[in-house]
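quick q for whoever's on today - can somebody do inverse folding on this one?? i tried earlier but teh output was garbage lol. tokens:
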């Protein structure tokens, strides 16, 4: 899906909260694994590292935490990809300003090719952040391959910007094929057609989570919803995939601090950013 060229001009409120919650979950993961010798951080859709206004984006914030000490940096293999050479060049400049980045075990920043297979992971303890634009390019094989490593955890963006097209049976090919197999696509379309008043969004989300957990041992999925900047329609989810049940409960409690809108799952609405209480769903 074509990237919005204005996205990195100024950080939106949604992006700010997204960075905060991903960094919170990364910190929790790192605290649990900091005694391990080999650690990895992988981001296959990294972006330029900062916005035009100078605000740091998620990957650079995570790298700052990794490089807080020389000893920690020396434990990490880092892989950062994006689809444009200009973006990767900006990312490298941003990384060059991070203290202790030169001590990373490996740092690979490269331009990803369309259809490129995901990084093959070994048994290293890994935190992966997948944040593509829309559904095109978020191939389920990226997720399934990564999670074959039983020590891999993930923050996964799940966009709903194209959801209305899906409900209306849009015939544009390829938008959803990357996410679901043919059987699941038919199940979703049949459900949307035969249950006009049902919560279709929840049905699709649950199908996606089921796809993840069916190929992943001991995976606990924690979704966090974002509303659109100027409406109460869903913009996207960040789904955290956590291997430890006890840490899953700790993570859930931490994310509750960022939620400001009552929903079926933890939810943030920019329209209600100044509210201190959860709001009831509008009918």
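ok took a stab at it. sequence:
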């Amino acid at each position: 899906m074509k990237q919005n060229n204005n996205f990195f001009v100024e950080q939106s409120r949604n992006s700010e909260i997204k960075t905060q919650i991903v960094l919170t979950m990364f910190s929790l993961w790192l605290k649990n694994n900091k005694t391990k010798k080999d650690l990895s951080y992988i981001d296959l859709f990294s972006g330029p590292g900062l916005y035009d206004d100078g605000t740091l984006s998620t990957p650079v914030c995570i790298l700052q935490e990794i490089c807080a000490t020389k000893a920690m940096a020396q434990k990490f293999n880092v892989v950062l990809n994006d689809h444009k050479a200009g973006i990767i060049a900006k990312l490298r400049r941003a990384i060059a300003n991070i203290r202790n980045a030169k001590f990373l075990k490996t740092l690979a920043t490269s331009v990803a090719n369309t259809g490129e297979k995901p990084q093959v992971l070994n048994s290293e303890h890994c935190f992966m952040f997948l944040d593509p634009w829309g559904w095109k390019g978020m191939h389920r094989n990226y997720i399934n391959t990564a999670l074959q490593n039983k020590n891999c955890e993930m923050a996964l963006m799940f966009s709903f910007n194209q959801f209305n097209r899906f409900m209306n049976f849009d015939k544009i090919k390829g938008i959803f094929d990357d996410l679901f197999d043919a059987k699941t696509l038919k199940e979703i379309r049949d459900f949307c057609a035969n249950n006009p008043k049902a919560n279709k969004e929840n049905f699709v989300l649950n199908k996606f989570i089921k796809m993840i957990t069916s190929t992943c041992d001991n995976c606990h999925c924690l979704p966090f919803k974002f509303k659109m900047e100027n409406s109460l329609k869903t913009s996207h989810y960040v789904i955290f995939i956590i291997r430890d049940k006890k840490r899953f409960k700790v993570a859930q409690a931490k994310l509750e601090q960022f939620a400001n809108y009552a929903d079926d799952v933890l939810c943030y609405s920019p329209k209600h950013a100044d509210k201190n209480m959860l709001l009831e769903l509008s009918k």
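fwiw Residues 1-7, 275-283 have pLDDT under 50 and may be disordered. also The CA atoms of residues 221 and 241 lie 5 Å apart. so keep that in mind when u check it
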